[in-house]
């Protein structure tokens, strides 16, 4: 259609590119749905659309092939006007349709992303729930535990923000940022962990077994799971080699912190073991006791509450270890420490991804 | 209250506990690891247990047990004990009561 290309060329000279691109893209998406007839009229609509946008009135005839405008001037002029009006109307309508279509696409894209995330989570929790016989009182049958769903969504964001902070820390240290700038980053980092502990406390109230299972973490992280999270002693072991040499005053403080956190960890571990034994005993039917099944179940249920307390204490220990560590270290060292810690957990997650990734090619 | 305060001052390190409380057990283990043998009073096995529990709550313990006293002074519950220990402030208070091994 040589006419059309002329028209296009004219508008191009005027520097109007946007409409072409947009309409070109739109044409692409409609390609599957439109016949060639419609394609022809689309071009007409495009021309009118552009005309409307830039207020450029072509003195050349708008129709691709001759429409008899050279024979009876007034009648053809009317026809032309009518056609122009129809084209403008059609262009307007198709612009509206395009807008609606694009909006629908955007909404669907978002919905798809959410659904994929949801499926992944439900699949994970399905695997988890099936191992516990999917008993209805745990609320997994169809209805998802909203406290846990909230936690899962917030945790995804938490990890993303964590990653962003790690990158920021790395850049700041690399660029020799001032202590004031590092202090801000260290405080944000510590605060970010505090947020995680608050989130976990809410999740513990919703479902303690979810937190204890570690299903919310990646497989490799889960391997190192201890009472609902990472080991406090592990934290210090990871950080120590990454720090600039500690001063003579810092060394004994650090060593004492390592020792005391290890002792506290051991104490909680043994308490947890005792709790497991007690729980098992209270759940096992006791023929000698005069209590009914209901009574024994009720008492066992009470004991389960102790699990929440232990996880809370474990989190408290994790938080205290972080706080004390940052108090012993200088701002610069604390930044290095947080970076080392963040990177370590990131690598655990990355390792999990590699581990669970499907094989790339046949060997 | 009197009973609680009397028992608390009887020995260096006193833990008020309940026989079913595994957290109390954990706190006891911690003291053992540091080299101290606390005296443990299980208030659920004590005839005055109810009053003792109320007294401990009045003293400010959010969870009545475990309640840790050192030298007759209330240190607190698990949270306080753990925090002090990580800060390195628990052992200095225990010095007079640590066993010579």
SSE diagram, text form:
The complex is a heterodimer of chains A (363) and B (101).
Chain A (H helix, E strand, L loop, with lengths): L1 H12 L4 H13 L5 H19 L18 H58 L15 H29 L4 H28 L1 H6 L5 H5 L8 H8 L10 H34 L9 H36 L2 H26 L7
Helix pairs in contact in A: 1-3, 2-3, 3-4, 5-6, 5-12, 6-11, 6-12, 9-10, 9-11, 10-11
Chain B lengths: L1 H9 L2 E5 L4 H13 L4 E4 L6 H10 L8 E4 L2 E4 L1 H10 L2 H5 L7
Concise overview:
The complex is a heterodimer of chains A (363) and B (101). Chain A is mainly alpha-helical. Helices cover 75% and strands 0% of the residues of chain A.
Q: Could you characterize what this model shows?
A:
In chain A, 75% of the residues lie in helices and 0% in strands. Chain A contains 12 helices and no strands. In chain A, helix 3 (36-54) crosses helix 4, helix 5 crosses helix 12 (331-356) and helix 6 packs antiparallel against helix 11 (293-328). The two termini of chain A are 53 Å apart. In chain B, strands 2-1-3-4 form a 4-stranded mixed β-sheet, with helices on both faces. In chain B, strand 3 and strand 4 (73-76) form a beta hairpin. At the A-B interface, helix 10 and helix 11 of A face helix 2 and helix 4 of B.
Give the overall average pLDDT of chain B: 88
Low-pLDDT residue intervals, each spanning 5 or more residues of chain A: 1-25, 27-69, 131-143
Pick out the low-confidence regions of chain B. none
Mean pLDDT of chain A: 79
Give the tags.
heterodimer, A: 363 residues, mainly alpha, 75% helix, 0% strand, disordered N terminus, B: 101 residues, alpha+beta, globular
